[in-house]
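ok, trying the design again with the full structure, not the truncated one.
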């Protein structure tokens, strides 16, 4: 999601909701894997857009569960360890 300004180490603030719309950034469980992507639709089927040119869009094969909508991003600065 780096092309959307979300970088490695950022913390996503996600609101749990079932009300999602095309263009929302969502936290989703896709075929057993957790991901953060933009939700779009092609011919009525959901497609998750990565916003990173190293990855291709995800078209769920079996399972798609939208966990919530991204409401903000928190970024830490400086040398901190977790």
């Amino acid at each position: 999601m780096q092309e959307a300004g979300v970088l490695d180490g950022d913390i996503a603030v996600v609101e749990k909701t079932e009300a999602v719309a095309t263009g929302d950034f969502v936290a989703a469980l896709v075929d057993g894997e957790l991901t953060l992507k933009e939700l779009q639709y092609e011919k009525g089927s959901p497609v998750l857009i990565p916003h990173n040119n190293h990855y291709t869009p995800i078209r769920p094969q079996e399972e798609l569960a939208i966990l919530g909508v991204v409401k903000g991003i928190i970024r830490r600065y400086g040398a901190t360890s977790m």
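Keeping the full-length input from now on. The chain has a mean pLDDT of 89.
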